[in-house]
């Protein structure tokens, strides 16, 4: 008997819960770091944080479901446990690595002058009148 469907029924809810829970924690607790990077620009921080959350969900859920196509046939209950545990562990490690990469990127961006505007701003949104009128962001 092939137990793959049973393994999928265990694996998918577990991995989706982990992904959504961790993503929401990153979203809510990471906003303060992004706000610091953008010198208090709340509108830009919210937009970037939402985009990061959507990307995080897409990458992780896509990877988690994509890996199902590589699973070998599962013939015993012991193989169900082993397969589910190893795949959940792999996804969890991938999430941790992505988290540490993001922290390193935030630290680097925070120390560099990469995000500092050199043009004067006119409004609370951080955009100059020229940028606002043309609908483009100035980065220099």
Structure commentary:
The protein has about 140 residues and is mainly alpha-helical. The protein has one domain. It is built from 4 helices and no strands. It has helices at about 5-35, 40-65, 75-110, 130-135. Helix 1 runs parallel beside helix 3. It is elongated and about 60 Å long. Residues about 130-140 have low confidence and may be disordered.
Blueprint of the fold:
Layout: H1 4-37, H2 42-66, H3 77-111, H4 129-134
Helix pairs in contact: 1-2, 1-3
Largest sheet: none
Backbone CA Rg = 21 Å
Measured between the Cα atoms of the first and last residue, the distance is 63 Å
Number of strands: 0
Shape: elongated
Number of domains: 1
Strand content: under 5%
Keywords:
140 residues; mainly alpha; 4 helices; disordered C terminus
Overview in brief:
The chain has helices at residues 4-37, 42-66, 77-111, 129-134. By secondary structure, it is mainly alpha-helical.
């Amino acid at each position: 008997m092939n137990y793959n469907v049973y393994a999928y029924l265990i694996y998918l809810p577990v991995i989706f819960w982990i992904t959504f829970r961790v993503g929401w924690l990153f979203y809510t607790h990471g906003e303060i770091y992004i706000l610091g990077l953008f010198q208090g620009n709340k509108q830009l921080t919210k937009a970037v944080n939402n985009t990061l959350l959507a990307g995080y969900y897409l990458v992780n859920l896509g990877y988690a479901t994509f890996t199902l196509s590589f699973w070998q046939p599962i013939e015993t209950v012991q193989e169900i446990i082993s397969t589910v545990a190893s795949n959940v562990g792999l996804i969890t490690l991938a999430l941790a690595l992505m988290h540490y990469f993001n922290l390193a990127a935030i630290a680097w961006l925070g120390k560099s002058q990469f995000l500092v505007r050199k043009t004067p701003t006119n409004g609370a949104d951080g955009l100059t009148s020229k940028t606002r009128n043309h609908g483009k962001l100035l980065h220099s």
